[in-house]
TrEMBL record:
InterPro entries: ConA-like_dom_sf, Laminin_G, Neurexin-related_CASP. PROSITE patterns: LAM_G_DOMAIN. Residues 38-218 form the Laminin G domain. The lineage of its organism: Eukaryota, Metazoa, Chordata, Craniata, Vertebrata. It comes from the Eukaryota. This is LAMA1 protein. The gene is Lama1.
Length: 223
């Protein structure tokens, strides 16, 4: 066995002596244990998950669905960006959810603004669906639909061939459709990207780079 166990271990004794796990000599990729856990992936607000090393092609159509819960009013949800201007981005800014798309002619944004600044940042699960269909974009949060007008109707394809960054992105990586640099703090689950008939559910434990992300469980209440 060459990989770590996704579990909690406590009260370990060796030769009747209890080990002190509060002040270890060294520690690597070990998180707290929690009294209650939920399915999903925990982002501690310091990093990101990087998916599809070989590059994700957004092109003309993509439908993104995910569920999130957070108590922070800022945070990157997802970004795919070329080195040019073509890109898509999902983020929470001042408690609003923004879906940005640039097909090459200019950035357009669908914004969902809840009634209260903190109503999406209440620590409860919220469902998000972001859809790009050629030059049309829309955003659905908890069943509430937001459309936006796009003046660039001739430009329909976001020509990316780049990794999908979730929850944040490295400092040296350009993200043309994200305005926030704040890493997401909270939990994400059920990230699905659909193109035509092809649906892909992303497993964060298979990310090629994980920083400050714990893919196997979300804390319900800290212990």
């Amino acid at each position: 066995v060459t990989h770590s166990i996704p579990a909690c271990i406590g009260s370990m004794t060796i030769n009747s002596k209890q080990l002190d796990n509060e002040s270890p000599v060294s520690i690597f990729a070990v998180n707290k244990c929690y009294e209650t856990v939920q399915d999903g992936t925990f982002f501690d607000g310091s990093g990101f998950a990087a998916l599809v090393r070989e590059g994700y092609k957004v092109r003309s159509d993509v439908n993104i669905t995910l569920e999130f819960r957070t108590t922070a009013v800022h945070g990157v949800l997802l970004g795919v960006s070329s080195a040019k201007v073509d890109a898509i981005g999902l983020e929470i800014v001042h408690g609003k959810v923004l879906f940005h798309v640039n097909n090459g002619a200019g950035r357009i944004t669908a914004a969902y603004e809840p009634r209260g600044t903190n109503s999406l940042c209440d620590g409860k699960w919220h469902k998000l669906q972001a859809n790009k269909s050629k030059h049309h974009i829309s955003l659905i949060i908890d069943g509430n639909l937001v459309h936006t007008d796009n003046p660039y109707i001739q430009s329909t394809s976001a020509d990316t061939n780049n990794p999908i960054y979730v929850g944040g992105y490295p400092a040296d990586v350009k993200q043309n459709c994200l305005t926030s640099k704040s890493s997401f703090r909270g939990c994400l689950r059920n990230l699905v990207l659909t193109k035509g008939q092809h649906t892909e559910l992303f497993d964060f434990s298979r990310a090629f780079d994980l920083r400050g992300v714990f893919p196997h469980s979300c804390p319900g209440a800290e212990h």
